[in-house]
Amino acid sequence: MSAKPAPTIHPIDPLLAGRWSPRAFSAQAVTAEQLNSILEAARWAPSSSNIQPWRFLVWDRFLDANAYDRAFATLVPFNQDWVRGCPVLIAACASTVNSRGEPNRTAWYDTGAAAFSLTLQAHALGLAAHQMGGFDPALLRVAFQVPAEVEIIAMIAIGHHGDVQQLNDTLREREQAPRGRLALGDIAFAGEWGKTV
Ligand SMILES: Cc1cc2nc3c(=O)[nH]c(=O)nc-3n(C[C@H](O)[C@H](O)[C@H](O)COP(=O)(O)O)c2cc1C
Prior knowledge:
35% helix; binds flavin mononucleotide
């Protein structure tokens, strides 16, 4: 199941509607060219004062299996179950201070924008990208000597789409379940809080 377009109420660009978070990956390698494009998309994300607080730690199991395994080991068992075999893992991190050492309160927001650019670019290349909060950032920090002022926000699995039949029953069911979202009226308000657009 490599396509699961969003059943939108109003029309949106097919790139946005087509992106989703699959769990079936093939073991096929991601090329350096593809990975560079994916990271380049993140590089061109917008950020407050153009500070660009995002930092990405990248592990490719075909280039350094040992480092990949150490990053993989920080994932919660639920995620390990489906990530196993996926060729690339990326940790999306945010430097939480600006060049003067002051707190940058939009670092998380900006890094989210960069991470989303990255996932969209992966999708545009026909690849699958799946973000994860289910990992141990403290373990990852120690294992890869991430500086204290850098927040490790999410892990992202990237690879080629795989066969849904390789997933266990629970995951296969989730993979095939319809996609859902809150109603527009629940997330966007017209002029005053709670007033339907
Ligand atoms: C920050 C973040 C953390 C997430 N954590 C996990 C996770 O640990 N495991 C998982 O399987 N999916 C995870 N997801 C994927 C979401 O479940 C998914 O984006 C959501 O269900 C919407 O589905 P869609 O991306 O296919 O539209 C995460 C997504 C985001 C943005």
